[in-house]
Backbone:
């Protein structure tokens, strides 16, 4: 500690000491792990990591289902870009499909709620253009419900 | 005064005293842990299990089962959750852990230490709890949506508790070397 003056003693030695402390602490804790423990830890970590996609895969949308007046008029896989135009009582609703997402691009309804919802990406999300009786729903591997009533 | 002929006299032996002491430590850790605020119900460190691991290594599975179950009952009585859903979740978790520990403690000690035991117990704990929750509390597959979170918690806390137990055992071994001859080897179940 003789190399530093009284005024500027604080920073460098403290940082150096805490670094050494962390390294020593890790070595000390590592000493408590036996070879098989590392294997068990690896297996446990892999299992925990594998659960995330397994349990949460339902969130990815696979298909867009377009309905007019309650009837399905188009079922499109979300793999390529494509436009679907649906005729309703007020006019034509234009639905835009892109890889992994879909939206209502244009609708003749007065309040434009379904258009302003923007891109849908999650399974079981839905945009409803009620005045023109058109809906766009995304479905994944599992359906969350049998029917929607509104 | 005549002594009652039906009076039962219980004389606790050294085993009982030891189990009671370890259980008291485990219950104290469980109660202290209840004061830690946690974001999700069901995600908690399970510090009492450190004691179970130490007892398992030092005194065998039978004693570990006593300490673990006494902790579940004792802590739930102190915290007022006895016979509430949380109590049954704890009990199921403890029983699943003990089953896993019975298997994991047969692994060669040379290669597998307290961390392996702890990870086996923590994953069995959440597994048992999820099964009970699915069968009884939330009869819907939705409970499994939380399983990755629980598994991540089991990984972190299983590792931490295992290291704590290993540290405790290492310190005990050091003390025994100085003070007294080491305890007789744990009976293998």
Residues:
């Amino acid at each position: 500690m003789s190399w530093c003056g009284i005024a500027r003693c604080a920073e460098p030695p403290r940082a150096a000491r805490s670094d050494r402390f962390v390294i020593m602490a890790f070595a000390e804790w590592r000493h408590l792990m036996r070879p098989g423990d590392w294997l068990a830890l690896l297996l446990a970590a892999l299992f925990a990591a594998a659960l995330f996609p397994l349990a949460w895969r339902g969130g990815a949308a696979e298909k867009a289902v377009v309905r007019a007046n309650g009837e399905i008029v188009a079922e499109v896989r979300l793999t390529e870009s494509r436009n679907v135009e649906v005729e309703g009582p007020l006019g034509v609703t234009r639905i835009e499909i892109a890889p992994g997402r879909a939206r209502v691009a244009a609708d003749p309804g007065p309040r434009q709620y379904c258009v302003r919802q923007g891109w849908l990406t999650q399974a079981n999300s839905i945009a409803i253009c009620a005045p023109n009786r058109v809906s766009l729903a995304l479905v994944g591997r599992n359906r969350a419900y049998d029917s929607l009533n509104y | 005064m005549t002594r009652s002929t039906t009076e039962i006299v219980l004389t606790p032996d050294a085993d009982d005293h030891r189990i009671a002491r370890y259980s008291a430590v485990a219950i104290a850790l469980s109660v202290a842990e209840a004061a830690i605020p946690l974001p999700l119900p069901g995600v908690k460190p399970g510090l009492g299990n450190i004691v179970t691991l130490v007892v398992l290594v030092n005194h065998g599975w039978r004693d570990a089962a006593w300490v673990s179950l006494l902790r579940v009952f004792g802590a739930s009585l102190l915290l007022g959750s006895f016979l509430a859903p949380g109590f049954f979740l704890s009990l199921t978790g403890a029983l699943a852990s003990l089953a896993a520990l019975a298997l994991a403690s047969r692994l060669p000690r040379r290669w597998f230490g307290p961390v392996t035991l702890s990870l086996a117990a923590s994953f069995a704990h959440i597994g048992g709890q999820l099964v009970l929750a699915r069968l009884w509390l939330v009869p819907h597959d939705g409970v499994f949506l939380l399983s990755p979170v629980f598994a991540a918690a089991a990984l972190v806390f299983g590792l931490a508790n295992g290291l704590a137990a290993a540290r405790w055992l290492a310190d005990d071994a050091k003390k025994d070397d100085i003070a007294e001859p080491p305890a007789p080897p744990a009976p293998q179940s």
The helical segments of chain A are 11-30, 35-56, 113-116.
